[in-house]
Amino acid sequence: MNNALRSQWQVPAGREDCFDAKRHAHALVIPVINEGQRIRAQLERIAAAHLPVDVIVADGGSTDGSLDADFLRATGVRALLTKTGPGKLSAQLRMAYAWCLDAGYDGIVTIDGNGKDNVEAVSLFVDQLNAGYDYVQGSRYLKGGAAENTPLERTIGNRMIHAPMLSIAARHWFTDTTNGFRAYSVRYLLDPRVQPFRDVFARYELLFYLTVRASQLGLKVGEVPVRRSYPVGEPIPTKVTGTSAKLQMLKQTFRAARGTFNPSTGQDG
């Protein structure tokens, strides 16, 4: 890694609790905050699946007791990273991605910690990274994927607004750009034309930016089928609630699409 570039990273402060040694070439990063039984059940499914990844939990400051250290050790989690600095999801991801790159991983898979995704698909992402892909998006809309009990509002927003907007900007058609189940190569994250470790990425901006940037730069991108299941008869497991939050997400999407977050390196693709 270029030490000069590393010194410029803006990474929020956090606490590290490491429970195990590095055992795999790829990391699975799970951002969470107060997910309760959903994240505990998800970690148990991950442990049972014997996936080819080290599990890294990126906590935004949970207070519900769901991330008990003994439980994390029992389910094979390698590390719990707790963000103590400012920012929300994108800040959690910057903290975790920086830790994974410093630890020497070849690539990173990210999955939401709210239990909606089929954890077994992690292996598909690792296969694609091993095949040379730099950005892999999970899609419930591909053949072999499944969108179960998805709220109509979510389907319309994703299929008719979010995915078309970011696909046009990316110069590559993606079908499920609101899905946080995705993977990145180290080459992509360390490319000086990307620079994901900037404080401008605080909420959801980093997800949308990394969706469009790889194919703009001519890197290898693709999608894999996944299953995303919303619970029946329960509140929707999401942190995006209320009109204001949804409008803010739309604004962040538009800024990513128009290139607002692209660094000024003079080397653009």
Give the topology.
Blueprint: H1 3-6, E1 14-18, E2 26-32, H2 37-49, E3 54-59, H3 69-74, E4 77-83, H4 89-102, E5 107-110, H5 122-130, E6 135-139, E7 146-148, H6 152-170, E8 182-185, H7 186-190, H8 205-216, E9 221-225, E10 227-229, H9 243-257
Structure description:
By secondary structure, this protein is α/β, with parallel strands linked by helices. It has a single domain, classed as Spore Coat Polysaccharide Biosynthesis Protein SpsA, Chain A (Alpha-Beta Complex). Helices cover 36% and strands 18% of the residues. The chain is built from 9 helices and 10 strands. The protein has an 8-stranded mixed sheet with strand order 1-4-3-2-5-8-6-9, sandwiched between helices. Strands 7-10 form a two-stranded parallel ribbon. Helix 6 packs parallel to helix 8. The longest helix is centred in the middle third of the chain and has 19 residues. The model has no long low-confidence stretch (mean pLDDT 92).
